[in-house]
From TrEMBL, chain A:
Pfam families: Sigma70_r2, Sigma70_r4_2. Keywords: Sigma factor, Transcription, Transcription regulation. Residues 116-136 are annotated as: Disordered. NCBIfam families: sigma70-ECF (TIGR02937). It comes from the Bacteria. This is Sigma-70 family RNA polymerase sigma factor. It comes from Actinomycetospora chlora. Belongs to the sigma-70 factor family. ECF subfamily. The keyword Transcription regulation applies.
UniProtKB/TrEMBL annotation, chain B:
InterPro entries: Anti-sigma-K/W_factor, Anti_sigma_zinc_sf. Its main location: membrane. It is found in: Membrane. Coiled coil: none annotated. The chain crosses the membrane at residues 110-134. PANTHER family: ANTI-SIGMA-K FACTOR RSKA (PTHR37461:SF1). Residues 85-105 are annotated as: Disordered. This is Anti-sigma factor. Keywords: Membrane, Transcription, Transcription regulation, Transmembrane, Transmembrane helix. It is a single-pass membrane protein.
Length: 227, 277
């Protein structure tokens, strides 16, 4: 049984506009993040506060979406930021931005938390959608520009997801936004686990192309056989 | 780009969507496969951005206060910053090849170790010698044997956290080092799984066959086949007695057999171990 995928009424920005919007501010963010991490390494709580002000919102939003539980999401976010506080060196600038690293870790921790609460999660409606809209992103304030930038990226991601074949989108969505294992996705969708693996692999490859301007060149492009 | 049958697991690993045994197997495979490392890097880049698509919600103000209070209460001082130092990989880093779960402290599984000898007797092939069956007793803590023992314990602990009634067996090779783990779910209808840790290469056109040992009659019974190419355990039509009042296998063994129907008895046994409830 394939999960239904609701349409998401979001306009897709022009690719060139999106590329400018995403890459230019991020260069400044990287420098600011590096400075904050250096201060974090000296044990300055104000640096942790500043990083939380920058990334706490998207981190909490993702954790809340996966956990479907506000308290659990708060625990996940706290765990992630405390991990960075304890050991800032675990972030490797050569492997991406602070934002991407934090969001990956939030996803990982949220999935772990959900699985620890597996019994409760079984009563949570199954969904493979990232959910519609960008409720609240436009709140005014000093971080409005970053939120707008996040909204552009969010639109690009949703647009890319919509362009995937339904079965690939469903498999990726259940795994990412639902926190289900591939075996659970196979059970939910009624297909062999090998099919789920194939669909997820093909879906990621397609997203890699569709999100190319956001993600940069692929590892294969850059490293070839040295990867 | 060259392919690898496990590239699909790279995506599962990046999405935290592998079962614990699959994740361990993939993590062990990763250092040896450039194709999977490339696939993992690409999948991780996608994972890092999918989170942007969710509706943005402000966290409760109390969370900031709680976070800062917890940080200030942390003992000691954070380590000095060492940005982008090659080889710096945190265990919790989802893009790193390290296991996702914290390592459990090493524990001595005397029962499982002794099981190697018992299973060898049951099989009637006397292949396991005593040397090294207690690897944590006299081995320095940083040796591969100890690392394998830790991984074996970790696999069992992870599985048991999901299924407290699970039965398991740590299978050891001729040197007494952990080579694989068998997980036997408490649900009799659920299939067993073999988690390979350090099995010897099966060679071309061969499979690993999992045998239940110590059953009534003492004849080993083939219960599953594992294709070394994908590492997945494929249960065989069980001929082992099961049900209330019927004792389960006292141990398990793994042999290397030519691909195809499992033989009546194992030929080349490579690891054995005793079941622990």
């Amino acid at each position: 049984m394939a999960m239904p995928m609701a349409s998401v009424p979001v306009d897709v920005p022009h690719a060139d506009t999106a590329r400018r919007a995403v890459t230019t501010p991020l260069a400044g963010d990287a420098a600011a993040d590096a400075a904050l991490l250096e201060r974090l390494g000296r044990g300055e709580p104000a640096a942790l506060d500043a990083l939380y002000q920058r990334y706490g919102r998207p981190a909490y939003s993702l954790a809340r979406r996966i956990c479907a539980d506000d308290g659990l999401a708060e625990d996940v976010v706290q765990e992630v930021f405390l991990a960075l506080w304890r050991d800032p060196a675990r972030f490797d600038a050569a492997r991406g931005t602070v934002a991407s690293w934090l969001m990956t870790l939030v996803h990982h921790k949220a999935v772990d938390a959900v699985r620890r609460e597996a019994t409760r999660r079984r009563h949570h409606p199954t969904t493979s959608e990232p959910d519609e809209g960008l409720a609240g992103w436009a709140a005014a304030g000093p971080s409005a520009a970053r939120q707008a930038l996040g909204a552009v990226l969010g639109e690009q991601v949703r647009s890319a997801l919509r362009r995937l074949p339904t079965e690939q989108r469903t498999a990726l969505g259940l795994a990412y936004y639902g926190g289900y294992s591939q075996r659970e996705v196979a059970s939910l969708t009624g297909v062999p686990i090998g099919t789920v693996k194939s669909r997820m692999f093909a879906g990621v490859a397609r997203l890699r192309v569709l999100l190319g301007p956001v993600l940069g060149p692929s590892a294969a492009d850059v490293l070839g056989d040295l990867a | 780009m060259s392919g690898c049958p496990r590239r699909g697991d790279a995506v599962g690993h990046a999405f935290s969507a592998l079962e614990p045994d699959e994740d361990r197997a993939f993590t062990a495979h990763l250092p040896h496969c450039a194709a999977c490392r490339r696939a993992l890097a690409d999948a991780t880049a996608v994972v890092a951005n999918l989170g942007a698509a969710v509706p943005q919600v402000d966290p409760p103000p109390a969370l900031r206060d709680r976070l800062l209070a917890a940080a200030e209460a942390e003992p000691g001082t954070p380590v000095r910053l060492a940005l982008a130092s090659p080889g710096t990989e945190a265990r919790d880093d989802p893009a790193a090849s390290a296991p996702a779960h914290p390592a459990t402290p090493p524990r001595r599984r005397l029962v499982a170790a002794a099981g190697g000898l018992l299973a060898a007797v049951v099989l009637g092939i006397g292949l396991i010698v005593a040397r090294g069956v207690l690897p944590t007793q006299a081995t320095p803590p940083d040796t591969p044997a100890v690392a394998l023992a830790q991984r074996a314990d970790q696999v069992v602990d992870d599985a048991r956290s999901r299924d407290p009634g699970l039965r398991s067996a740590i299978l050891r090779d001729q040197a007494g080092d952990p080579a694989a783990v068998v997980l036997d779910p408490s649900d009799a209808a659920a299939p067993i799984r073999l988690v390979a840790l350090d099995l010897p290469p099966a060679g071309g056109a061969n499979d690993y066959v999992v045998w239940a040992t110590g059953l009534p009659g003492n004849a080993p019974v083939a219960v599953a086949v594992v294709d070394p190419d994908d590492g997945l355990t494929r249960p065989l039509e069980s001929v082992a007695p099961a049900g209330p009042g019927v004792p389960g296998p006292r141990g398990y063994a793994v042999s290397v057999e030519p691909s195809g129907p499992a033989p009546a008895r194992p030929s080349t046994v490579v690891a054995v171990g005793l079941t622990v409830a």
